[in-house]
Amino acid sequence: MTAATPEASHTTDTVEELRQRTRDFIRGTVLPAEPAPGERLDQATRDRLQQAAKDAGVFAPHVPVEYGGQGVPIQWWSQIFQEAGYSPIGPSVLNCMAPDEGNMHMLNLVATDEQKRRYLTTLASGQVRSCFAMTEPHPGAGSDPDALLTSARREGDQWVINGHKRFISGAVGAGFAIVMARTEGTDDTPAGATMFLVDMDNPGIRVGEHIHTIDRAMAGGHPHVYFEDCTVSSEAVLGEVGQGFRYAQVRLGPARLTHCMRWLGLARRSLDIALDRSERRTVFGAELKSLGLAQELIAQCEIDIETSDAIIAKTGALLASDPRAGSAMSSIAKVHCSEAIFRVVDRAIQICGGDGVSDGLPLAQYAAEVRGFRIYDGSNETHKWAIARRASSRRRKTVDAGAPYQADAVVRDTESH
Amino acid sequence: MTAATPEASHTTDTVEELRQRTRDFIRGTVLPAEPAPGERLDQATRDRLQQAAKDAGVFAPHVPVEYGGQGVPIQWWSQIFQEAGYSPIGPSVLNCMAPDEGNMHMLNLVATDEQKRRYLTTLASGQVRSCFAMTEPHPGAGSDPDALLTSARREGDQWVINGHKRFISGAVGAGFAIVMARTEGTDDTPAGATMFLVDMDNPGIRVGEHIHTIDRAMAGGHPHVYFEDCTVSSEAVLGEVGQGFRYAQVRLGPARLTHCMRWLGLARRSLDIALDRSERRTVFGAELKSLGLAQELIAQCEIDIETSDAIIAKTGALLASDPRAGSAMSSIAKVHCSEAIFRVVDRAIQICGGDGVSDGLPLAQYAAEVRGFRIYDGSNETHKWAIARRASSRRRKTVDAGAPYQADAVVRDTESH
Amino acid sequence: MTAATPEASHTTDTVEELRQRTRDFIRGTVLPAEPAPGERLDQATRDRLQQAAKDAGVFAPHVPVEYGGQGVPIQWWSQIFQEAGYSPIGPSVLNCMAPDEGNMHMLNLVATDEQKRRYLTTLASGQVRSCFAMTEPHPGAGSDPDALLTSARREGDQWVINGHKRFISGAVGAGFAIVMARTEGTDDTPAGATMFLVDMDNPGIRVGEHIHTIDRAMAGGHPHVYFEDCTVSSEAVLGEVGQGFRYAQVRLGPARLTHCMRWLGLARRSLDIALDRSERRTVFGAELKSLGLAQELIAQCEIDIETSDAIIAKTGALLASDPRAGSAMSSIAKVHCSEAIFRVVDRAIQICGGDGVSDGLPLAQYAAEVRGFRIYDGSNETHKWAIARRASSRRRKTVDAGAPYQADAVVRDTESH
Amino acid sequence: MTAATPEASHTTDTVEELRQRTRDFIRGTVLPAEPAPGERLDQATRDRLQQAAKDAGVFAPHVPVEYGGQGVPIQWWSQIFQEAGYSPIGPSVLNCMAPDEGNMHMLNLVATDEQKRRYLTTLASGQVRSCFAMTEPHPGAGSDPDALLTSARREGDQWVINGHKRFISGAVGAGFAIVMARTEGTDDTPAGATMFLVDMDNPGIRVGEHIHTIDRAMAGGHPHVYFEDCTVSSEAVLGEVGQGFRYAQVRLGPARLTHCMRWLGLARRSLDIALDRSERRTVFGAELKSLGLAQELIAQCEIDIETSDAIIAKTGALLASDPRAGSAMSSIAKVHCSEAIFRVVDRAIQICGGDGVSDGLPLAQYAAEVRGFRIYDGSNETHKWAIARRASSRRRKTVDAGAPYQADAVVRDTESH
């Protein structure tokens, strides 16, 4: 979906028009239907709101027009996704929520026509949800995907998958899973990981213990999922055998960035709440908004929001023009945005005082929604490690190519100290 | 209780012995009885554990021996309270939890013998809980106590209290409240605020709407409390009429500091959990504890914990020797500790990854417990404002007393730029 | 110069080509000619390098082609200016250094043809330098421009300027000054501030005491400048009488942003030095670059650099399309970049250890160069104040226009706490 | 000197009296004699002020009375050293400056009577200065002392030292050096490092190239020092052969902490300058000190200063009672204080605006003085590494001794998500 389809020849103007329409829809239709803090969106409301989004022409902004979406290219997703994320349920309503959004992205890039017909169509329309089964309990695949333990072995024309996954967001009630499993090499295919499309009613899949996390926006929870001699046909292979790790990278760069977009919308919401509060409160005889220590908090929020918006835009443009460079940049965007967004929500709580940590306002729940983002999709520490290594490598290549080494200390001894 | 009573002639050695005993009790007896994250301590378990604490000779460390406590002077509370706080239910079990602990402190300093007999005895023994009714809905008393709206007017030998309080921690199920109300001056008494001891079964008190906050350690919640022609006798006045604001300061300095102590214990617990995690996990083929980006987090935790411990010790010693200076210093301790403790818990979550934001570990709940401390007892912004003004005032007095003013820029123009 | 002139019809490709040429010139020609840390660029070397820049077709990137520059529109300055700033003397060599660059920008927008002929031509070609005389000693114009004390009064067809300026960067050796002075209103002109073009050899101007600051890159220092019955003709008025404050804003938005661009180049240089160091050093038996605590520093540098680059790009695009919004955004860019750039240089010093604080490496001098940027062009505190007020105002207007106020705490009391 | 000598039976009261006397001396006598920012203290002024300090009874606070000092035990040094450090030349004047102060400390603990007579007496009295020759150029001893390359070999009754040191603070003009060299083991002595007392007029010592660093308070610079067949007698061995690394630890714990003490004094000075500035400046019609964004800076300074003071006090007490634990704690104190002190000076600069980065005020020079402290005496990164490893080790031992491992995530699956 990084490339605009013919039908969706968007321009800055049409995207701005869609952004405004999305904004009106979210604020006018979705906000009044939000569940209370700590509660989840029920299915009936979700269905009703999705229909309304379709009617308003704002459903599935990132999905090609042929699959019922708005066909917006990736470099313009941010404006729209931020509007969606202004409500914690907005992305679900617009069907641009993780993990479905990333799965749609990958299916569009990698799936066969038959797979698209079967999986992408229903997913894009909101008829089913999906999950992405990669993470495993220690010592399996986590921060380090190479530690993958789940395996798939060929048996004739079939594959038999065995393994234990956890933190499989959205698995409860999902229609299908994209499963990452280790596969052996053959004469034709390399050893490595392979992705499989597996229906959740496959008898070899069992959704196990739920993991109760502090977020509430994710439909389908984050449970354990067990694969026990889960047998699928060769049509279940997504893309090529042995290319799973490569596809995972293709998926993760944009998926990481759309998290930034959606949660930046929630940061804007949080700041609006705090600004409303500081507008009408007086303390020590002064308007709260006029007190310098509140202004410090507000200004820092603005800086965090605008720099996040800017690094997202830069990364989105790169993902459109140079996916590999864009994926590298997405590490930087992910670390900056996940920390900046958390700070914004945290400061908004501070401005709202006791109400900020109560469910009288939704801010404490927003903090719970965004906290995990510093951990998910590669912990920030893992990303910083990767960022540093890429920087070192880039510079080393420059020096190897002839740029002068600049770190030799010059001895300058012409006079007394 | 800042002064040790004759019976409790503690030394460094006896306090260290009590600390060790408290540590053994908390880790051996209390930890195994902790409720699951998000759950509350039930009354039966609390009663059982309080009895065990009495049997172990560790109950009510800060309470004079004559009231059944251990009679530890304030400069040594920190060691003991940190051990108590290692469990989120530890302070309740040892009866050194807010708001009871601060109320005991104030009753001991201000109450009449009869009031002590009636209120302090039962409170110190754990038979009843209490609350402190000061905070009001906007635009009443909050960060700015002067905005107090609740009033008490004399009617003959009685007082009639009217007003609306909120965030009254511990009110549900409390035996009595210490109520702050505005009183008019008379020939004998100044206008200002006055404190009253009011039984919670007084028909003029109504515990109203609960406020659902993210913490769970506080028995009795944080509800609204309404005073509607609540009538009490003159024996209900705590201390002197018109001195309420002064007593509130007497209460708040130590109360603020004991929050630091208890929650620093929880920060130590959080770090222990993270250290345990990093000890046994491997990632990218290395022990997690050996990775520099984890070591950065661990080292910052250590620094936060030790500097918090140090500023608490400094403030506690000052409160013992010079309560006014100690109260000023408690603003600094409060801001530093509340932020440092939050950072420690937040980093521990980060080290524990997905489990950190799930209820598989208690860390996310710990973060919820300590988040409010940056807001309660005067928001950190309010304290920073006070800290800055005190610094300016201190320096101005020094200059007024003859110290040279040092901020005139000297013009040094002897040569070219 | 925000609009490209006809002759300079740049595209992304031509700008990229110019960027590469500038990069080659700076690294191949300018770096080898840099003075030692703490020393200044001498005039002869500057002249030689400026000629070389002209020969290489990289001189004055922001200047219209008709005045001898490369005619790059403002939204593309950043790529070029960052390459220039990779050397602390690069901007002087390319004639895109403050305050000349901002003065050229303003002259192009506001000056008469005759003024352009006389002042812009020589300035753009590097024949003369200039200064911008706005800041005054306390209690005059500083963070608060409205406090302007320097005055200009009409005497027939002339103006007589009196006042005392300081921190007038570049004044020593400048050919002319743009002077901000308070003027009274007449029937035709409003009261306010007016800008004047004054030759530095006017007998009424006296360059006074130098102010020795820690930076070295600014030719012409930061001296006091005195105006003593300094008489100029009416042709000296720049733009319209009474519009000085408005023009100052026109100048300051882009001027602030070009500081960000140039110094971001120096931040990249600093990181390169640190990366070189960490590439070849071993400590405790490991390569420095492989140690997590060094990687933390490197990754934070990358994040600071890329987010700075991104917010500059966003602001530059806004300045081109909507100067008023761009000027507001430039406050955010200025605060973020000035702090991020300082942090990058500071971390680079840390990575280089003792050499980092010696003149064996240029890093300590780089830190001195960039430190002032948190103070110049409006202190960061002043900008944060403005940022917060704009945020409050924006939100208030949204609410006034009908958006729901979101900060009323909802009372949700359906069950026990 | 950690133990008070009989003659110097200090109490809290006598130390407070000495602190007040030191304060009066520094502010009344030393401040007026300070050199301009960037200049150094000349020898004549130093001699005059040292005599005045002796006359005032404040000279050498840490030195035993028998050597002409005030005999203050280490747990009380902080109060006195902070007063000394209020002036950048104060520690030199009171003869409690690095590296002499640490050398005196070690000589007192380790030297023979004859060595004390010859070296400690003259050093303590201010007659000579000294240096500590440990650090070497890469890849020798730096952050990692084990990398020591300088060697000493026995030749009969003599030792011959060869090696290259650098950053040898105070070497220019010093009377003697304490030299760290690698020595081979014998039947009687272990292999390892050994310390030697070497007169600087030994023909085998050559003070080489100076290293121009940004600080100015250190008399004697930070030059390279070469040992070329430098021959000394066996009386030159300080302590026991092969124990050099152990003694270095003995020296470094307190030496690190006294840096904290002295520079905390300079931080207090910086804040005083900023408070003076904010007291008398008005901006935007308000007193600077009343603006919240200045109050934020001031409050953060107070918090940094008081927490630094507190962790120093804690560490000093530990060094007196348990030197090994104190040395470990000194890593934490060093990291916290070096960063906090730098922040205080940096914020003071910010409050003073343009004057802050000029030599019209001394703040920019103060920033240069304290910047190196994050690098010297073990870089903060090295200390954080050590702090993290100690924390991991402490916790592992606790768990090994029977404490329950707390990081197993509990599966709590009793209901739907």
UniProtKB/TrEMBL annotation, chains A, B, C, D:
Domain Acyl-CoA dehydrogenase/oxidase N-terminal: 12-127
Domain Acyl-CoA dehydrogenase/oxidase C-terminal: 242-391
Cofactor: FAD
Location of the Acyl-CoA oxidase/dehydrogenase middle domain: 131-229
Keywords: FAD, Flavoprotein, Oxidoreductase
One matching Pfam family: Acyl-CoA_dh_1
Entry similarity comment: Belongs to the acyl-CoA dehydrogenase family.
Subunit organization: Homodimer.
Protein name: Acyl-CoA dehydrogenase family protein
Organism: Janibacter alittae
Lineage of origin: Bacteria, Bacillati, Actinomycetota, Actinomycetes, Micrococcales
